[in-house]
């Protein structure tokens, strides 16, 4: 049985690498051909993506949903069915580097103080959860207040996703991802930090929240990329220093280089003072260290690049 006609196309936004887009399109359409429902589609698509692109792919499938997540640049693909409203989102997460908010989201603060207006019946259904009960109650309470606050807004799903992530980050720290759907037709199969997943429904809305900061291999690749760039930068700095001493050297620096700082004045090179000998030898030492630094940091950068390539291969083989 074919789910949604297997006619998914890659959307223009968010921008994804062309190679990732081609792989994602093939994976989702192949998954749709052997799926009967959204969960099967999500599971098959995730498996196919991780076989070809390595572990760490998250999948969300639904008809109308908004997300607030931190994804790896070029590794977030949205596919839409041409024959239906079904959408599939594939992405990889990364750790957050921004500071934790100093105060709760303004919408949450407004919702906290506002009287309940009874816009929602607030029938709550817990679909999946591995949080501690106290944390789960707090997450559901935040979502209820925000849905009540934004209920009449045409972009309720987007605004609740944004505000809920802000509120959770303020309360519990970084790496939260939020997905909010205006219908209960939503399936999310993420990789999670243990005891951080909550999938629940409030009236017609479906909310999924969880924490994840990227796979270990991804984090190692990020670290090696940063170290590689720093090594190349240091090699360039050393090369600039070497060039400075080469192009600013005078004839006297070359002439006086053969002298020794401990020599008697009578044994100094002709026309050189002790000060000239000291300066010439100092320049020569700095020039030698700069050349050595250039070669050393270049070798380190090359080694880090090869190590990163091996990690990329390992990620695809996991």
From TrEMBL:
Which molecular function GO terms apply here? dynein intermediate chain binding
Which SMART domains does the UniProt entry name for this protein?
Dynein_light (SM01375)
Q: Which UniProt keywords apply?
A: Membrane, Transmembrane, Transmembrane helix
Q: Which Gene3D superfamilies match?
A: Protein Inhibitor Of Neuronal Nitric Oxide Synthase
Q: Which is a Pfam family this sequence falls into?
A: Dynein_light
Q: Which domain of life is it from?
A: Eukaryota
Statement: the UniProt record of this protein carries the keyword Transmembrane: yes
Q: Where are the transmembrane segments?
A: 230-247, 289-307
Give the matching InterPro entries.
DLC_sf, Dynein_light_chain_typ-1/2
GO CC, alphabetical = cytoplasmic dynein complex
Q: Tell me the GO BP annotations in alphabetical order.
A: microtubule-based process
Q: What is this protein called?
A: Uncharacterized protein
């Amino acid at each position: 049985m074919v789910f949604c006609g297997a006619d998914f196309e890659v959307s223009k936004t968010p921008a994804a690498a062309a190679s990732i887009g081609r792989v994602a399109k093939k994976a989702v359409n192949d998954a749709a051909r052997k799926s009967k429902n959204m969960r099967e589609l999500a599971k098959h698509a995730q498996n196919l993506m991780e076989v070809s692109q390595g572990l760490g792919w998250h999948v969300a499938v639904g008809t109308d949903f908004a997300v607030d997540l931190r994804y790896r640049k070029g590794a977030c693909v949205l596919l839409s069915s041409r024959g239906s409203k079904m959408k599939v989102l594939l992405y990889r997460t990364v750790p957050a580097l921004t500071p934790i908010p100093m105060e709760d989201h303004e919408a949450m603060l407004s919702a906290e103080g506002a009287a309940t207006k009874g816009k929602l019946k607030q029938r709550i259904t817990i679909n999946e959860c591995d949080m501690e009960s106290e944390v789960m109650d707090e997450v559901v309470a935040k979502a209820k207040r925000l849905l009540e606050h934004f209920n009449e807004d045409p972009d309720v799903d987007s605004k609740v996703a944004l505000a809920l992530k802000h509120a959770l980050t303020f309360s519990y720290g970084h790496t939260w991802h939020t997905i909010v759907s205006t219908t209960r037709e939503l399936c999310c199969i993420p990789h999670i930090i243990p005891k951080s997943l909550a999938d629940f429904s409030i009236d017609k809305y479906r909310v999924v929240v969880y924490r994840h900061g990227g796979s270990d291999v991804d984090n190692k690749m990020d670290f090696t990329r940063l170290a590689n760039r720093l090594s190349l930068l240091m090699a360039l700095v050393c090369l600039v220093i070497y060039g400075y001493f080469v192009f600013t050297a005078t004839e006297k620096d070359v002439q006086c280089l053969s002298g020794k700082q401990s020599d008697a004045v009578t044994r100094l090179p002709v026309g050189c003072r002790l000060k000239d000998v000291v300066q010439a030898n100092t320049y020569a030492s700095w020039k030698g260290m700069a050349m050595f630094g250039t070669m050393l940091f270049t070798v380190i950068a090359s080694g880090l690049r090869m190590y990163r390539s091996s990690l990329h291969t390992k990620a695809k083989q996991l």
